[in-house]
Amino acid sequence: LSASLHFLLDVILVYCVYLLFGKGRVSLLLTLIITMGHLTFGYVIVISSNQVHPIFWTIPHCVLVLKLIEFPVVISYIRYKHFISSILFDYKTTPSSLLPGLQCLLLGILTAVIYSQFGKYFPLSGILSEEYQARSLLSKLLIMIITGKLALWHYMAVWTFAGATCVIMGISYNKSLFIPEYTDWTAVYNVNFWNNETSSTLQ
Predict the structure, then answer these.
(1) Residue 43 CB contacts under 8 Å (≥ 6 apart), including other chains
(2) High-pLDDT (> 90) share of the chain, %
(3) Which of 3, 8, 121, 193 lies 20 to 30 Å from 199 when distance is taken between CA atoms?
């Protein structure tokens, strides 16, 4: 199934639950079972077949499962499913956030390009291959580091895209109570790319 079909299936199932059972514990339990089961199915696909496309619907779907937001109107639910920033907050436009948002978006594009160009040479499945097992220890360590880094950047690209939309829509503004002219757009960052790549400790 494509990402759009996964979204549509989830919308229909959850809406039918609330339509039939209304708001209450039964609907909450059924919604949890359906959405968590759907998400688990997506993760099984990712792990078992080493496919790329499930990540584009499993990440926003994961957030929705964790929040278990109630949507009384089906259009509202569709909006939240297809606009990745809306799974975190309602949006509002702030023109001054455009440049920082585009910078974040370019970082996401760069990360995605690096993964798309080099990920095919270092797939996660390669670590389980006989060819990998036959390599020297130093070669194994080097390949493992590169493979792990590219796999991480796969997720980092998606997270950065989500962060960019949050910045552009103005919902990530981090206001300072002490400096009125203070401008920072990291209030809802999922990950700080540069700190993650340059840190020397796990703290």
Answers:
(1) 54, 58
(2) 9
(3) 121
Q: Which residues neighbour 179 within 8 Å (Cβ) at sequence distance 6 or greater? A: none
Please count the other Cβ atoms lying within 10 Å of the Cβ belonging to residue 72.
9
What six digits make up the tokens of 6? 């996964």
**Rg of the chain on CA atoms, in Å:** 20
Burial class (CB in 10 A: 0-12, 13-18, 19+), 30: middle
Please say whether the beta carbons of 143 and 122 come within 8 A.
Answer: yes
DSSP code, position 178: S
Its pTM stands at 0.53
Q: Of the candidates 57, 87, 85, 54, which has an alpha carbon nearest to the alpha carbon of residue 71?
A: 87
